[in-house]
Amino acid sequence: MERDDPVKITNDTEKDITPPWLEPMLKIKFFHNCAIHLGLRRKECNFYCTDCLEKNRAICNCCKDEEHSDHHVIQIRKSSYHEVVRVTEVATKINVSGIHTYIINGSDVFFLNERPQPKGVGAAAGKNAASPYFCAVCCRSLLNNFMYCSIGCKMAWIKNGGNASFLLEEVKEKCDSNRIGNENGSMSKDSGEGEEGSSAAKDVKHPIPRLRARPRKGIPCRSPFF
């Protein structure tokens, strides 16, 4: 993946390319007991509602069912003591291009924030050192050609003036403009070739099959034995 050179952006521009709920979600502490439902099961706060910015807090499963049943709620999971989210839960809300995808328990996930670098010993460190790909923010070794190791690193890249965006509208506008341009180009091409195609179709002459220049040989047979 090609890496864009950093471009200085203003705070207003940063707001335009980052959803207002994303940075607060990256800073919130998850996996603590819910103060409202202490006496109930499933009281661990590992959900976040993207529609309730005024509350801006981690919620438990009971809170989700009681107050956020019709909202877009993202479930936070853990992998090796680090917080992750499934790709399917955030890909419809933010532009995830450039973020490294990991497969954990059969699901594609993103890490929320930067993780500690692996130590310089052991098989894991040797595997990471052999990779030519690195995170543009924390320089963490990546297994594939991505630009960021986590959502938080892409956020840091944007806040430092990097040329990137989390908004889906930006990608959609580019796709729509390209699609409209391609359709207009194909329509003009079809209209210009319409008359020539119709006239050429009238003058088409089917080739006359040619007869064999030489007659076909007879069927070969074995000579008799004496």
From TrEMBL:
Residues 207-219 have a biased composition (Basic residues). It comes from Rhynchospora pubera. InterPro entries: PLATZ. Residues 179-189 have a biased composition (Polar residues). Pfam families: PLATZ. This is PLATZ transcription factor family protein. Residues 179-226 are annotated as: Disordered.
